[in-house]
Design goal:
The chain is α/β, with parallel strands linked by helices. The chain is 35% helix and 15% strand. The protein has 13 helices and twelve strands. The protein is globular, with a radius of gyration of 21 Å. Bound molecules: ligand P1T. Ligand P1T binds next to helix 3 and helix 4.
Length: 387
């Protein structure tokens, strides 16, 4: 991008196309090349052009990181091999004796990492309802270093007040980390609301095409960035250059895609709410959603994810998930194609028998960017099997 305008003055629709991507200094290539190299020739011992070894830095990753920082309105971004790698690396800022207050509705893999892996290293976790600011305040301890939440949550799509929780965390001398995967930076930018870290599974909306797994941390604090940059290299859970290229390419259409995801989801949520087989629809865009007003204030649009419960419970849910044709039965979300899944036995199997356990009849859909009438027709025929 030529320097005529500061990046933070530009709109998101412009940033997704331009941020981080400079013409290649060697050739003028407009798209950042896939620097498929592990190492870099040095002119003399320890004399190089800023790149020594691709775990430490790679130009394709540098471009992706600059783009992600701009999208979230942060000073720094670090890219990782997966969303879980990003969360794991961030948690390595903590150590034995530290405490984390974590939302009680989070991706199953996040709970698994906290409960089954990090707890062994002496980090303690309390899982609380982060939609309840008082509950979070009461869960804070003198050794609480981090408040961690998703908003909207996976899979119940609950909305937490980022500004209020940033105050609670900061009053106690802790950080606030927000997993912004379900919203994407198009719908909400947690750093601007007071969060210290934003994390993404870039596998989802940011990549957008279900063809790459990745993760990211975005932040403003220079000293903490230096620690995380050290950890990124020391731990080594970095994405390859091809993955960085695919993610960068996906980002170009992020704003356009989010618009269509949200439009389609709103219509589908209304269709589901009116359908006789459906007992409950959970979508932040519906007035029936418990945090609908907060979602309106905090997010530009309610997102592309919907959860629902059928009158026929788990048995009916399994039939519907099997019978849809356009909605593919699969884990993950945020791609251009629509997906359907049952969180309890699939994405959230690792929270079974925990306080975070999910209703076994819950159905989660990731609404894609297809024609919405086709998607509704597909759901209608599948729901027709259980009325
Ligand atoms: O899959 P990975 O890129 O490692 O990201 C993990 C992750 C982190 N945060 C949230 C909110 C997520 O939803 C995920 C991954 N979630 C799924 C695979 C899923 O289907 O819910």
């Amino acid at each position: 991008m030529k320097e005529q305008k500061e990046q933070n003055e530009l709109h998101l629709e412009t940033l997704v196309v331009h941020a981080g991507v400079e013409p290649d200094p060697q050739t003028g290539a407009v798209m950042t090349p896939i620097y498929q190299t592990s190492t870099y020739a040095q002119a003399d011992v320890a004399v190089h052009k800023g790149y020594e070894y691709s775990r430490t830095d790679n130009p394709t990753r540098t471009a992706l990181q600059a783009s992600l920082a701009a999208l979230e309105g942060g000073k720094y971004a670090l890219a990782f091999a997966s969303g879980m790698a990003a969360i794991d690396t961030l948690l390595r800022l903590l150590g034995a004796g530290d405490h984390v207050v974590c939302g009680n509705d989070v991706y199953g893999g996040t709970f698994r990492l906290f409960d089954k892996v990090l707890q062994k290293y002496g980090v303690a976790f309390s899982f609380v309802d982060t939609t309840d600011v008082t509950a979070v305040r009461e869960a804070m301890r003198p050794n609480t270093k981090l408040v961690w939440l998703e908003t909207p949550t996976n899979p119940m799509l609950r909305i937490s007040d980022i500004t209020a929780l940033a105050d609670v965390a900061h009053e106690a001398g802790a950080w606030l980390g927000v997993d912004n995967t379900f919203a994407s930076p198009v719908l909400q930018r947690p750093l601007s609301l007071g969060a210290d870290f934003v994390v993404h599974s870039t596998t989802k909306y940011i990549g957008g095409h279900s063809d790459v797994v990745g993760g990211a941390i975005v932040l403003n604090d220079t000293a903490v960035y230096e620690q995380l940059k050290f950890l990124q290299n020391a731990v080594g859970a970095v994405p390859g250059p091809m993955d960085c290229f695919l993610t960068l390419r996906g980002i170009k259409t992020l704003a356009l895609r989010m618009r269509q995801h949200c439009q389609n989801a709103m219509q589908i949520a209304q269709f589901l709410a009116d359908h006789p087989a459906v007992a409950e629809v959970i979508y932040p865009g519906l007035e029936s959603h418990p945090q609908h007003e907060l979602a309106r204030r905090q997010m530009k649009a309610p997102g592309g994810m919907i959860s629902f419960i059928l009158h026929g419970g788990e048995a009916a849910a399994r039939v519907v998930a099997r019978e849809t044709k356009l909605f593919t039965l699969a884990e993950s979300l945020g791609g251009v194609e629509s997906l359907i899944e049952l969180p309890a036995p699939m994405t959230h199997a690792s929270v079974a028998d925990s306080p975070l356990a999910v209703d076994p009849g819950l159905v989660r859909i990731s609404v894609g960017i297809e024609n919405v009438q086709d998607l509704i027709a597909d759901l209608r025929q599948a729901l027709g099997k259980v009325v």
